[in-house]
């Protein structure tokens, strides 16, 4: 009698994002160069249509899509974004841009204690690169947000 496999494959979490792209090999190359992704598995050595990759401690699927779930249209971005914690936002941003990403928002320090930048990868997927720069309590974040909004209203008046 065969043992039932575990619900979650080793190394995965309950939810795993699947990125549909027009060119899986090119996407794998981008993610390896820009985000130091490691290919864990793929369905073919040449021209894979599916791969699982690991970025840091997170697993992602990279696919050619299936059924109604096709790749993003070139020149547009998907409505779902990825918030990725990195050691150095500015360095990761520079590497991603050097490898074909498009800048959406430059690196800035946020009121919630992170340094963030947002890019679109060459396949239309949005990534916010983030580095924690402060440990804040929820009350501190709320206070900073209110001060920022108050300052913006005063400036607009």
Automatic annotation (TrEMBL):
Domain VOC: 11-132
Lineage top rank: taxon: Bacteria
InterPro entries for the chain: Glyas_Bleomycin-R_OHBP_Dase, Glyas_Fos-R_dOase_dom, VOC_core
Matching Gene3D superfamilies: 3.30.720.110, 3.30.720.120
SUPFAM superfamilies xrefs: Glyoxalase/Bleomycin resistance protein/Dihydroxybiphenyl dioxygenase
PANTHER family: BNAUNNG04460D PROTEIN-RELATED, VOC DOMAIN-CONTAINING PROTEIN
UniProt-recorded name of the protein: PhnB protein
